[in-house]
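[scheduler] slot 2 assigned
[scheduler] job type: sequence-to-structure, two independent chains
[scheduler] chain ordering preserved from manifest
[runner] begin chain α
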Amino acid sequence: MGIFGTLERTTDLQSKLEAGGVTEKMVRASLSDAEILGRVAIAFGVESTTGWLDRLVQAEKAVHCAFFGRTFDLSQFRSTLERYGEDRVKKWAELGLEPHYLPEWTFSPDAKVRGWKVRPEPWFWEQLAAGNIKRRNAAGELETITAVGFDGATLLIDTRCNPVYDNGRQMFL
């Protein structure tokens, strides 16, 4: 288990990294370097000392630490990937799709989440509190949303190039 797996709160992460002379920029660069080296090893058919599943789970842990400032239970993520297998995961990668896990998390206007850069406008939270935001349930009926967040699900993320965010005016060409 690496440094991220032993830390529970953002302040612990920041203080321990700072005490060790490690900046956030250095952590991001090392995560990127590790991912690149892993892909190079796979391209050349070099076996890693950790299995494909362990690499993906550890990478997801690092992503959660960078975004949320904490780790989550990834057993559901691990079992989903095991069920599909390494060959299918490699096929997804060829298509530009990466498996990720969105942990159970409820967002609030004042949530302290370091990776949350683009937040909803205040009117969104006002409408949510007033009960004016609806969604269709599995039966097709409208139901009022009382909270927004993640339900704890494994999903595939399209990693192909996207336009740079431009305050909602960006376009795919």
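[runner] end chain α
[runner] begin chain β
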Amino acid sequence: MTTKAKVADPQAVPPDVAGQAMQAWKCQLETAMQLVETMTEGAAKMREWQLQAAVDAHANAVAAQAAVSKAGDPGALLGTEAQWMQRNVEQAASYWRILFETGLETNANLLKCLLDQQKAAGAPGAAVDIDTSKGAMLEMVERAYSQWLEASRSLAGGQALPKT
């Protein structure tokens, strides 16, 4: 005796259940699209910063090369090298800080998209204040960066590095 598998009749699904399922599906798809858009925006911002850093590094190298060719004594050459290295360190620190902040902002926006989707679905535990946690993280990074910059200034042999 063979039995046939029962196939659900699409017409047999109550309209309210079908509508709820369709709405949940749309919500998930919209969230996925928002996540992709957020990641794309973050990647584009990082690319812009990378391009700007490359342009700045090139300009710094060209200026240093011109100063090296004009240096007439060891003291001038040493000063040129020190200034070039100092600018490179400052630009590198700024570059990495900006990339970190952009990544942090992108991650916070991704989390916000997910939490918004949870709120829309009525999920418990979706009430997290992203701005507060993001602010705390940025303050921590700012303190670490300031400490690093002060340590760099002290290592520069008392030379006054420009304040950021």
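[runner] end chain β
[qc] chain β: Residues 160-164 have pLDDT under 50 and may be disordered.
[scheduler] slot 2 released
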